[in-house]
Design brief:
Helices cover 54% and strands 12% of the residues. By secondary structure, the protein is of the alpha+beta class. Strands 1-2 form a two-stranded antiparallel sheet. β1 and β2 form a beta hairpin. The protein starts with 6 loop residues before the first strand and ends in a 7-residue tail after the last helix.
Length: 98
């Protein structure tokens, strides 16, 4: 049986919103590369949303009518970033594996 520490939390959810995991030793496999690319896209999107939100809050661009949509987008991006952080944290070497 594969231990949870050997599984990679993927950057998407499965049916019913349940987490998806990848069990592989091949960090260069198709699914690993796909997950890496999606994680990079998610982090890039979060960075762009943060920059836009800060501009809106500084009254430099946009108007406050867009705040509900922007808030929803920021919440989704935060969820993605937390999933990436959790996945990467789970894959860090523990002291006993160094």
């Amino acid at each position: 049986m594969t231990e949870e520490s050997e599984l990679r939390l993927l950057p998407w959810v499965g049916p019913e919103g349940k987490p998806c995991y990848l069990s592989t030793n091949d960090g260069d496999g198709f699914m690993s590369r796909l997950a890496d690319r999606i994680e990079a896209d998610q982090l890039d999107t979060a960075s762009k949303l943060l920059k836009h939100a800060l501009q809106v809050l500084d009254h430099r661009t946009g108007d406050f009518d867009e705040l509900p949509l922007l808030t929803a987008q920021l919440a989704a991006a935060l969820g993605d970033v937390l999933r990436v952080a959790t996945s990467r944290g789970m894959r860090l070497a523990t002291p006993e594996h160094l």
